Amino acid sequence: MRKLTVAIDGPAGAGKSSVAKVLANRVHYLYIDTGAMYRAFTWAVLEKGIDLSDEKAVRDLVDTIDIRLEPQADLCRVYVGPTEVTEAIRTQRVSSHVSAVAALAVVREKLVKLQQAMAKEGGVILDGRDIGTVVLPQADLKIFLTASVDSRARRRYLEVQAKGGSETYEEIAASIAARDDMDSHRTVSPLKKADDAIVVDNSDLDLEQTADVILGLMKERG
Ligand code: CDP
Ligand code: CDP
Ligand code: CDP
């Protein structure tokens, strides 16, 4: 099969990263987690105590930050300079600030360039919010992966419970709905289905079934 570029966009908790990892493993592609890059930038903003309204400080960070992804079999290690932040970028503190950071045009410009450079050889699966619309408008296959707020919140709730977390289902559902709202309504690169993207609703599919559907579409294109 020809080495494709695959774009997967969709709302928080739709299953993008889990499905992308399953697919990347099956077809030996590289999985590039663009959300992790926005989270890494947000981690640095919090670490340095930068006020997002301070344009100069944000610009300086954009100019100097070194974000690296090291994709491995079933996870993508993330570094900011010499510091590994793979775990640190998953905290609720980062989650609650990331949408505001991702709304800044200077930040997006920088990260989009990095993502395009990482994708240029093909054989890659990128997931995010603007992959099919902005990062890779020429992608071979564009998927808009979605699921109901209820099923997304239920999945997250199970994850939180498994980790011994104390968040309630209602809190998680509210946080997901708030992020959907911010991500879809921002001026710069809002979450939006590309005209030529295929909608896959996986509210009632498990990971393997969802991967099967997308793999079928990849085979058609490849
Ligand atoms: O995994 P989850 O859906 O919770 O989020 P993520 O993919 O880690 O992305 C975190 C945040 O980064 C999103 O809520 C968006 O605000 C932003 N993001 C973006 O703006 N553009 C992307 N290509 C990827 C993420
Ligand atoms: O990356 P994104 O925020 O879109 O979602 P995710 O982190 O990949 O998936 C959120 C949770 O839903 C994970 O625990 C997945 O294992 C689970 N999931 C599922 O149970 N069934 C699916 N069809 C897709 C995801
Ligand atoms: O999506 P992925 O599996 O890569 O990361 P995650 O650890 O599931 O965390 C990403 C998102 O899950 C956060 O942005 C939150 O919206 C949600 N989450 C949450 O609300 N509460 C938690 N304790 C953990 C995750």
UniProtKB/TrEMBL annotation:
Main location: cytoplasm
Keywords on record: ATP-binding, Cytoplasm, Kinase, Nucleotide-binding, Transferase
Name of the encoding gene: cmk
Gene3D superfamilies: P-loop containing nucleotide triphosphate hydrolases
Domain of life the protein comes from: Bacteria
Species for this entry: Megasphaera intestinihominis
GO molecular function terms noted in the UniProt entry: kinase activity
Protein's cellular compartments: Cytoplasm
Enzyme class: transferase
Family according to the record: Belongs to the cytidylate kinase family. Type 1 subfamily.
Reactions catalysed: dCMP + ATP = dCDP + ADP; CMP + ATP = CDP + ADP
Protein name per Swiss-Prot or TrEMBL: Cytidylate kinase
EC number: 2.7.4.25
Residues in Cytidylate kinase domain copies: 6-219
